[in-house]
């Protein structure tokens, strides 16, 4: 299986996470895809932000679900990272998909649908994927595996992936049971046995979040895709060992 490099929340080492500048930098780095997080505003617009609140990554405060889309667009999502990014906004998923459609990038959408639950999240995300005809380039992942099952019910053609942080027993069988086609384990539980058996079953393993150069090299050589905050370094490492 091809080892791919996904920019985790974009090039988030050098740019404010989950923003258009971070995604553009990921494209320019030579990454194969980007990973982003989606939840709904008060008026049910899918927006790209990781935390349940806007406190950490904007100049506002409070829960994302309590903001309308218009109000959340008034927040500064760049200055917290560096003053040069002042005025950067939280993008809508539609805005990102309109941009990514014209690139080669794959897109991993993490459905932030644990607590609180967003009953319409799967339906609205799927509608955008179909609107932009991105079915073959999108992966939907979540820590809420009920959300993955609902996704498969609504859109069986889409690839779903199990996110997990524990040492699950035979996770490939569990993934198949819920209709998922890939495993997205946390780096500490991505043990060699998991990688080897999953590979033998033709189930992709994509590990998060891999920022150490030696770990990048080992996993990419083992055929694992990775999510990294530093796609520039990962792309350079992959290029160097392929050329050596």
TrEMBL record:
- Extract one GO molecular function annotation from the record: phosphoric diester hydrolase activity
Organism domain of life = Bacteria
Q: Which PROSITE patterns match?
A: GP_PDE (PS51704)
- Cite the Pfam families for this sequence: GDPD (PF03009)
Q: Which InterPro entries match?
A: GP_PDE_dom, PLC-like_Pdiesterase_TIM-brl
* A single GO BP: lipid metabolic process
Q: Which residues form the GP-PDE domain?
A: 3-239
Cross-referenced PANTHER family: GLYCEROPHOSPHODIESTER PHOSPHODIESTERASE, CYTOPLASMIC (PTHR46211:SF1), GLYCEROPHOSPHORYL DIESTER PHOSPHODIESTERASE (PTHR46211)
Protein known as: Glycerophosphoryl diester phosphodiesterase
Native organism: Melghiribacillus thermohalophilus
